[in-house]
Amino acid sequence: MKEKNQNYNILAANLLERISTEKKKVENLNTKIADLTTKLTEAEKKEPQIVYRASYRTREVIKEVENPKTTRQLRQASKIINKLDDNQQIISQEISDQILKAQVQQIAFSEKQIADLKKEIENKQTQIDRLEKLSHGSKSIVAKRNEKVKSLKAELTATQQENEALVNQVKELETKLAAAQNQKTVIVVPVPEINDILGEEKSSDTDGEETGSETSELPPYETNPHAAPNYDNEEELQELAKYFADLAYERDETIKVLQSAINNLVPELDS
């Protein structure tokens, strides 16, 4: 379209230049006619021959001006100019339409960009809200894990204390067992629940014979649950010692599990 418009403009410029040239020729001829008419008027007062020559030249000039070819060219030039004016108006209208269309498209594109930006902002806000919720949830999880760590540490401490107590009891039993093996004396086990552990109960008809120990005069375990039962059986004492050793081993394993759980939780809390 631009190239076509440029071609029209070049053609119009050429025609305008030609028309301008023709107009100048006409103006020159009119000027010559006026000059010749003036000279003719002056010559009429002087000599007839001059008048004749002037009249002849005037007629030639008029003839040239009234030449059909020149007139036709002028009419064609006028038509071309009018056509160019019409084409120029059409081209101007088309250009205006194209500009308006481009502006409408630009506005539509801008509106789409604005809508896309709004949508992107909404998505970002949704992500921010979700991250805030996750942050609150993470804080809650961290707090719960902190509480769990504290609880596990407390449980670990209590288990360690219980384990130490059991180890001390096992050592005491081992000492008493060694003493019983050497001296063949009665060992007093300070654990009232031992009958439940071994799955045995003393009969209610204990003869209460004296064994050289100060605790031999205590009533039977069945009649006095808080009294410590007496064992003079070496096998039972060994079983009791083995039981406490197994119990201490289980406590150690429990401590290891708790310590592992704490070690696994602490890096997560640090991260």
TrEMBL record:
<keyword id="KW-0175">Coiled coil</keyword>
<feature type="coiled-coil region">
    <location>
        <begin position="100"/>
        <end position="183"/>
    </location>
</feature>
<protein>
    <submittedName>
        <fullName>Uncharacterized protein</fullName>
    </submittedName>
</protein>
<feature type="region of interest" description="Disordered">
    <location>
        <begin position="198"/>
        <end position="235"/>
    </location>
</feature>
<feature type="coiled-coil region">
    <location>
        <begin position="12"/>
        <end position="46"/>
    </location>
</feature>
